[in-house]
Design brief:
Layout (H helix, E strand, L loop, with lengths): L1 H22 L67 H7 L4 H7 L5 H4 L2 H22 L1 E2 L5 E2 L15 H50 L8 H25 L3 H15 L2 H9 L3 H14 L5 H26 L4 H22 L12 H23 L7 H16 L23 H4 L8 E2 L2 E2 L2 E2 L3 E2 L32 H9 L4
Antiparallel strand pairs: 1-2, 3-6, 4-5
């Protein structure tokens, strides 16, 4: 029996060595590559002055999310790594993304993967089950010694038989598990995609709003160039204040509150910044300030309505994002999938034991269990990480770009491209400010017709009007035609539009 004890101790050492080499998180120094131009232009880059373990503010990352942690043993896990997921690609990043060496790099970086880092406990547990199955069956069912000789069980009892499950049970249930995983990841990706589209709409319509504000600003208004620039700059800053408030609204308080308050007081008037900060719903307050800024512009109300349409789209994007943030994938689905996957993988070593009989004491089952559980747990982990997309979207980079683009648009002036701005044409005067409507409206000169010897209603030259039918009137020898017309210069805007809708009469 003494030799048996030595052999079983050797077997235990081999098992422990296998566990340490398959489940331990290792530091891996990746091969250097040129990252000089790997980041998108105009985007602030992470600071490298502080230790990566310290709290840092990352606006975006590129192709290699953890490039700043190449020589760091403790890659962050859980919430600490989400700031490294805020990817903004440039052309150089795309070249690396589709490089023919990408598989080599991905395999080299496997031990520094953030996804696998989050799975250490789950994978260790499944690996422990596999080790238990091997040891149990060796103790109660026999084992193979170092010389390859089959030895009898160390403990022989009818109450402790060898354990195992038919592999057919896992073959039958694997399609159902696959469908659950596919639906989980697809749904999470759709949520991420919708959130990214919401921010894409924000970017597009912030530019549209400021472009229209600049182009529709009434050149006939009695304002100085300095006042015009101040009005348009205020619109640009209010536009940025909304998207920045939306970013704070969708971000954890501990990550963004201090930076949000500081940026608002740096760029907005103190009173306005205070109103936004103290509001219960900050994006709504910022959107209201943007509406006030648009209303202050000297611009006809029809054009203001066009500008306000972009503001309405901002509200829609905000509501869509709030729905994503506050409504997860139904919890009973997520929890059932997690339980199904955990039980399936924890029982998998019992089904794989006989399949690995050709290996020494079935030991090849242990690394196989580690790989399979890592891949399947990884799919569920990716779906969970994508389900809440806002802390992995580079929202700060979006806000910085919006501020830069909007202020640039409002710095442009009519005629600064070398093409002189033309004066307002009379037929376009209606679409400027209310004061402009008081000018002579663009109506063709009327021509008069005679009814019963008196002057009747003028008829537009562009469209011949039928002569009104005369009605009997003892006090007036004129036909009972239309009432005396008003002069075109006396028409209000509403009357003019009403007559235009009636065919110019």
């Amino acid at each position: 029996m003494m030799i048996h004890h030595h052999k079983i101790l050797s077997l235990l050492l081999v098992v422990l060595l296998t566990i340490s080499t398959t489940t331990r998180s290792q530091a891996f120094v990746l091969p250097p590559h040129n990252t000089a131009n790997a980041k998108a232009p105009g985007v602030r880059q992470p600071s490298t002055k502080n230790s990566p373990t310290q709290k840092q503010s990352f606006t975006s990352t590129g192709w290699d999310s953890f490039e700043k942690l190449r020589t760091v043993t403790d890659v962050p896990s859980g919430e600490g790594q989400r700031k490294f997921r805020r990817t903004v690609y440039s052309h150089d990043d795309w070249k690396k993304h589709r490089s023919q060496d990408r598989f080599i790099f991905y395999l080299q970086a496997i031990f520094s993967s953030g996804v696998y880092k989050n799975l250490q406990r789950e994978v260790t547990l499944t690996c422990g089950v596999a080790v238990f199955v091997c040891l149990y069956n060796a103790l109660f069912g026999g084992y193979t010694d170092w010389e390859g000789v089959q030895q009898a069980a160390l403990i022989q009892s009818q109450y402790f038989p060898k354990i195992g499950l038919p592999l057919a049970a896992f073959t039958l249930t694997s399609p159902s598990l696959g469908l659950l995983l596919v639906f989980r990841t697809n749904t999470s990706y759709q949520r991420w995609d919708e959130a990214r589209k919401n921010w894409g709409m924000n970017i597009n319509h912030t530019r549209n709003l400021n472009r229209m504000a600049n182009a529709y600003y009434d050149p006939t208004a009695n304002v100085t160039p300095e006042q015009r620039q101040a009005d348009l700059t205020h619109v640009a800053v209010c536009t940025w204040a909304f998207v920045r408030a939306m970013k704070r609204h969708l971000s954890p308080e501990e990550e963004d509150e201090a930076a949000f308050v500081k940026e608002l007081y740096d760029r907005l008037p103190a009173a306005q910044a205070e109103k936004v900060v103290k509001s219960a719903h900050r994006p709504n307050r910022a959107l209201q300030d943007l509406s006030y800024a648009i209303e202050d512009l000297p611009m006809h109300y029809l054009r203001k309505n066009e500008v306000h349409r972009a503001v309405t789209i901002f509200e829609d994007n905000l509501g869509s994002s709030e729905r994503i943030l506050t409504s997860p994938v139904p919890l009973f689905y997520s929890r059932h999938l997690a339980r199904f996957l955990a039980v399936w993988l924890l029982l998998l070593p019992f089904g794989l034991y006989d399949a690995f009989a050709p290996s020494w004491n079935h030991m090849a089952m242990i690394p196989a269990t580690v790989v399979i559980s890592t891949m399947l747990f990884g799919i569920e982990e990716i779906g969970t990480q994508l389900e809440e997309p806002f802390t992995v979207l580079p929202m700060q980079a979006f806000c910085d770009k919006i501020y830069n683009w909007c202020t640039e648009i409002q710095s442009w002036q009519p005629g600064d491209n070398g093409r002189p701005a033309k004066p307002v044409r009379p037929q376009h005067a209606l679409y400027f400010t209310e004061q402009s409507v008081g000018m002579a409206l663009p109506m063709p000169p009327p021509t008069a017709t005679m009814v019963n010897g008196d002057r009747a209603a003028p008829v537009m030259a562009a469209k011949k009007q039928p002569t009104p039918v005369a009605k009997a009137n003892n006090n007036d020898n004129r036909g009972g035609g239309l009432p005396p017309p008003s002069s075109p210069s006396q028409l209000s805007m509403e009357e003019f539009l009403k007559r235009q809708a009636q065919g110019g009469s």
